[in-house]
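Late entry, evening session. Most of the bench is empty. Finally got around to the prediction I had been postponing all week. Sequence below, unchanged from the version circulated by S.P.
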Amino acid sequence: MLSSSPMPENPWPRNMLITIDDPSPLFELLWVREAWGLQPTGADLPPLLVDTPATVSSGHPPAEWSDGWYSLWGACVTHAARPQDRVGMERLFTDRSLGVSERAALLSGFLGPSWRERFGDEAITGAYAVWQSADAERRMSAALTLDETPERRALDSLIPAWRAGLTTLVVIPCRGSYTRRIGASALLLTDETRDDPIRFAEALGTFAG
């Protein structure tokens, strides 16, 4: 939220803008891991999804899927933490002099890595769209008024985090608490953490601290 003019009774700083992001590449990775029964290894894996997806196959997925999941997760999280390249996006849509390769490079940089880009579409079946729709419906059913939003309720903790550089909250629909500072201006956390006033304030404190 940005205010174009001073609002003395509004506690939200006039020039504070916080982006709430739920990147589809992260959602796809989380869904694929559970729907296909992958067993990735690595430190600090994210928790399981709140809405457990139906199992896609009782067979054995390609070993490279489990082997590559962890590194791809890290790459997608890193990309989610990057500030949006608004100049590059403007060029993509307005600069008619761009060649095919230049346009493709700009688009790839904007979209970032993803499961489909690395492994193709085989794992992303129609069951993903069903799960995605149910997850979106769950989020919509919890829609709040402006004053009831987590950011408004946690304003005393959000402002110091913003002053410390926070601009983006990357939210994943996973169970329990999982808060990680990613990059210089982003925080990765679960829906459950963001929706709980105490845990959200604590999460924001890890950024400001």
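Two things to note before I forget:
The radius of gyration is 19 Å.
The chain has ten helices and four strands.
Will write this up properly tomorrow.
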